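re: ur question from earlier - yeah i can do the single chain one, its not a big deal. heres the input i used so u can compare w yours
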Amino acid sequence: MQQLLPWILASLSAALLLGAGILSWLNRRRPQSRPLPNEWTLTARPVFSSDERRVYRQLREALPHHIVLSKLPLVRFCQPVDPQEVRFWYELLGSVNVTFAVCSANGRVLAAIDLDSERGHSRRSTQIKQSVLAACRVRYLRCQADQLPSIPELQLLVPQSATGSRGPQAPPAGSTRDMAAGSAASRRRERERKTLWQDSGFLQDSFFGVDGRGDLGPVSGFGSLRSGMSGRDMPVAPDDAGGVVIETPISPLRH
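and the output i got, formated as tokens:
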């Protein structure tokens, strides 16, 4: 036994050294947070390019009672149905946005507009946008900046019967009590329901706060997007011609 004791101690020492070496290697592999710079060598830049500014003004002129948002991410107005797939959808959609989004007064996105630039859009990005917007029942228009539809055509892009498309109006007489009851019910539903983006832990900024969407119909259209075909296997569609309104009341991926 005494003859084996040195070998046992040597084995234990070697195991400890090996474990320490592995831990040191793993610590070196972890990404370290870079220190903040001493000088912030940045400068302000315009939100719009010259073409985008011109298109924005035309949209405001055509749709004065609507809200026009710029560079709106897809994850700002959609969310997954299955909480187990939040990470997948966030990684797929998190970096994708539309050039302009036309919203009703209560914040519901009614139409999305993309401007084709010289660099163009990849077919994958176009397929993602078309699928998501079709699932969420949002009209989609792609066009060149110098071939924007006329003001009457832009007005036809937005459903005229959309609720909340105009600004606030005086309530009819005798409806104050009903409005108060509806507001209380809406707040109660909001407390009971939290959006999946927030529950997943991905919501660290104002983009993914809890929204009062009880009056906006279905919270998400991903059910139709996922039925029969997984988002991971979405085929790449050929690039469409610019200036075409893509309006699909029922998602093309539904079987």
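Residues 53 and 175 are 41 Å apart (CA to CA). not sure if urs matches, ping me
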